[in-house]
Amino acid sequence: MFVQEEKIFARKVLRLHICTMEGTEWLEEVTEDTTVEKLKERCLKHCVNVSLEDPKSVTHHKLIHAASERVLTDTKTIIEENIQDKDVLLLVKKRAPPPPPKMTEVSAEEKKKQEQKAPDKDAILKATANIPSHSVDRTVAHHSMRDFQTELRKILVSLIEVAQKLLALNPDAVELFKKANAMLDEDDDDRVDEIALRQLTEMGFPENRAVKALRLNHMSVTQAMEWLIEHAEDPTVDTPLPGHTSLEAAGASASSSQASGGLNTEREEVKDELTEIFKKIRRKREFRPDPRAVIALMEMGFDEKEVVDALKVNNNQQNAACEWLLGDRKPSPEDLDKGIDPDSPLFQAILDNPVVQLGLTNPKILLETNCSLSICLALPKVDGQWPLEE
């Protein structure tokens, strides 16, 4: 039996479903080796409004595989594009690219941009060359955060003084401040952890060195032990921390003065009980400098009293305290306890606020303000609120 050669190597014929944007549909039979461009030409013959005589008509159209939503490449064959029998292809006209702008339009656009462009420094100097100069040496006032904290402290101090006078007539305030005084006696920030101190002394460290190490390392036994080993040969290891000796002496003098004053209580007029309790609370809340910052600043050559004053003014911030010591040293430590002028319009406006008036008559507000004053000024605001301890 004789079989023709072309029938032995016959290509597989695929029947494809072609659709156009106008809604025309038909079946197109093509072989696997047909290119996409040839298929596109055959499809365009079915379109009435397309002329094949125009060489650009083929390039202005594209075939899209409906199932995979991909555009077919003109140079590839049907089998290379993985087209299967009975697949659906879309014949779509390509979007015409926008025409290039004319030279007149480009020049007009550039001219418009030049007109809207802000003048540079040379243009400003040229335009103002004939105008006389004014306020050349005007200095711009820069308000630092330290000035803001100083003014805020003065306002709070004045409000505390006003609240103290108002609460002197409130019998409930005395009892509340007595409880607060007792709570401060129980919770002393300067107290050393006895368990941690015992652990260090059992290791063989002297008690005075162990106390100093614990205070420097926030009562951490591990860090205190490392500090003691590191500074074992330091000649100043037995020197008490700055501020603690003065505080102890102040407490001793205060107790002695109270004892001597007790002998004359019968001959002197009894003072206001609320004022005395208030003074005790303020005395227990006295500023205590950061020992590490004190040592670091004293190693730079500054006197201990100057260092303590600098840390007090700058709320224990070492860098700010160093700048204060090297600068004009304003504000002074004496200015911290001074209030704002009671006759100033600012203070009068604050007192005229109904919310402030209600708060000044509340003993809890006065107690919280006094105890948290240093915290407010030492920490920044977070989301519009002071991060006060509860």
Notes on the protein architecture:
- The N and C termini lie far apart (106 Å).
- The longest helix has 23 residues, at 145-167.
- A hairpin with a 4-residue loop joins strand 3 and strand 4.
- Helix 6 runs antiparallel to helix 18, helix 9 crosses helix 10 and helix 13 crosses helix 14.
- Mean pLDDT is 73; it is low at 246-271 and 373-390.
- Among the domains are: 9-93, Phosphatidylinositol 3-kinase Catalytic Subunit, Chain A, domain 1 (Ubiquitin-like (UB roll)), CATH 3.10.20.90; 145-189 and 272-378, no CATH class.
- The chain has 390 residues and is an alpha+beta fold.
- It has helices spanning 5-8, 36-44, 56-59, 103-116, 121-127, 145-167, 171-186, 194-202, 207-216, 221-230, 244-263, 273-284, 291-298, 304-313, 318-326, 345-351, 354-360, 363-378; strands spanning 13-20, 25-31, 61-65, 70-71, 88-93.
- The protein has a five-stranded mixed β-sheet with strand order 2-1-5-3-4.
- The protein is elongated.
Question: What is the molecular shape?
Answer: elongated
Which blocks of ≥5 consecutive residues have pLDDT under 50?
Answer: 246-271, 373-390
Rg from Cα = 44 Å
Mean pLDDT reading: 73
What strand line-up does the widest sheet have?
A: 2-1-5-3-4
Beta-strand proportion: 5-15%
Number of strands: 5
**Main pleated sheet:** 5 strands, mixed
Helix and strand element order? HEEHHEEEHHHHHHHHHHHHHHH
Query: Treating each run of at least 4 consecutive H or I residues as one helix, how many helices?
Result: 18
How far apart the termini lie comes to 106 Å
Helix content: 40-55%
Region (Disordered): 94-119, 235-268
Biased composition (Basic and acidic residues): 108-119
Pfam families: UBA_7 (PF22562), UBL_UBAC1 (PF23326)
Subcellular location: Cytoplasm
